[in-house]
């Protein structure tokens, strides 16, 4: 915590530092941030060795410190980027003011503003994200359609299975009825033969 507060204090000096000393302040802040990151790696290893009842709170504390330091690192980079843009714009203004233009000067050119390039890069990144989100949406829609198709196929399979089950039942009933009819036919033939035998026996 003490090291984080020290870095925050140094961050406050950036806006008030002159051009000659601002680089020194930035280097000092970066060195302190790198040192904190190194200490956090060791703390993360130590927190994993804490007793189970203390391990979770120790890990949360390390994660909070890591988040704070990452926030400071981002703030430093944003300041450096803004400083770089200011310095480049100042150089371009000085070059523009120092340059002598003539009416037919075919070589007259104005440097492209770095901010415009940065904005174009951001717009390109936004377009890429929009395309990525669109692709993800299409993939999800395709998965939903496949899910509906699979549900319909599953229902048809169940219907066919039910039909097959019904057909098997009907076939068993037909086989049973045919078996019974066979015995009835054999019985009828036996009775008919017996009657014919008795008729012939008693009438002759």
From TrEMBL:
Pfam families: V-SNARE_C. The keyword Protein transport applies. Keywords: Acetylation, Coiled coil, Endoplasmic reticulum, Golgi apparatus, Membrane, Protein transport, Transmembrane, Transmembrane helix, Transport. It is a single-pass type IV membrane protein. The chain crosses the membrane at residues 183-203. GO terms for biological process: intra-Golgi vesicle-mediated transport; protein transport; vesicle fusion. It is found in: Endoplasmic reticulum membrane; Golgi apparatus, cis-Golgi network membrane. SUPFAM superfamilies: SNARE fusion complex. GO terms for molecular function: SNAP receptor activity; SNARE binding. GO terms for cellular component: endoplasmic reticulum membrane; ER to Golgi transport vesicle membrane; Golgi apparatus; late endosome membrane; SNARE complex. Belongs to the GOSR2 family. Involved in transport of proteins from the cis/medial-Golgi to the trans-Golgi network. This is Golgi SNAP receptor complex member 2. The lineage of its organism: Eukaryota, Metazoa, Chordata, Craniata, Vertebrata. The gene is Gosr2.
């Amino acid at each position: 915590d003490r090291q984080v507060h020290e870095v925050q204090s140094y961050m406050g000096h950036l806006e008030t530092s002159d051009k000659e000393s601002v680089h020194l302040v930035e280097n000092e802040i970066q060195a302190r941030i790198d040192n904190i990151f190194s200490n956090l790696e060791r703390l993360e290893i130590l927190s994993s060795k804490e007793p189970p009842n203390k391990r979770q709170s120790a890990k949360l504390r390390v994660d909070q410190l890591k988040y704070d330091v990452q926030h400071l690192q981002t703030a430093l980079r944003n300041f450096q980027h803004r400083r770089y843009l200011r310095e480049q714009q100042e150089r371009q203004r000085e070059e523009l003011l120092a340059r002598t233009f003539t009416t037919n000067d075919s070589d007259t050119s104005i440097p492209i503003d770095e901010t415009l390039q940065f904005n174009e890069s951001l717009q390109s990144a936004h377009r890429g994200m929009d395309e990525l989100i669109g692709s993800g949406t299409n993939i999800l829609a395709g998965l939903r359609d496949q899910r509906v198709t699979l549900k319909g196929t599953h229902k048809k399979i169940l219907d066919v299975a039910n039909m097959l089950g019904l057909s098997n039942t009907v076939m068993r009933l037909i086989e049973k009825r045919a078996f019974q009819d066979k015995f009835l036919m054999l019985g009828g033939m036996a009775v008919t033969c017996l009657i014919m035998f008795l008729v012939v026996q008693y009438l002759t």
